[in-house]
Amino acid sequence: MNVSVSYISVMTPYARAALMEGREQNRAEVTGVDLDGAVSEVVRKMLKSGELLGAQVCVIKDGEQIVDIAAGLKSPYSAEPVEADTLFNCFSVTKGVVAAAVHLLAERGEIDIEAPVFRYWPAF
């Protein structure tokens, strides 16, 4: 048999289960302010289903903070809860924001999407 399975890939689910044993009931606890409770309920359902490990959600409407919640865990390897000041890696989240901003600028005629990048970024 020519089979190769890494020890890590086999043991990771068992280690994760051992670390989380007895802590599942706290995963779906949502803390903070949610004026109508709708966002908290969605987050709670996602936590219980396993779609989400931990999250922070803040919504400001017309200058008023209507949602500011934290829920779940910081890491699959820790029982530490997510708090309002927990830091998360965002990785490629900005790509969508930049794309939307560029399209808005193009729509307003402030940039030309067909122009070479170095026109706007000379060091490129």
Give a structural overview.
- With 124 residues, the chain is an alpha+beta fold.
- 35% of the residues lie in helices and 18% in strands.
- The chain has a three-stranded antiparallel sheet with strand order 1-3-2, covered by helices on one side.
Short characterization:
This protein is α+β, with helices and mostly antiparallel strands and 124 residues long. The protein has helices at 7-20, 24-27, 38-49, 94-107; strands at 30-34, 54-61, 64-72.
Topology:
Elements: H1 7-20, H2 24-27, E1 30-34, H3 38-49, E2 54-61, E3 64-72, H4 94-107
Antiparallel strand pairs: 1-3, 2-3
What keywords describe this structure?
alpha+beta; three-stranded antiparallel β-sheet; 4 helices
Percentage of β-strand residues? 15-25%
Count of helical regions: 4
Please describe the biggest sheet, giving its number of strands, its sense, and whether it closes into a barrel: 3 strands, antiparallel
Tell me the radius of gyration.
21 Å
Structural class: alpha+beta
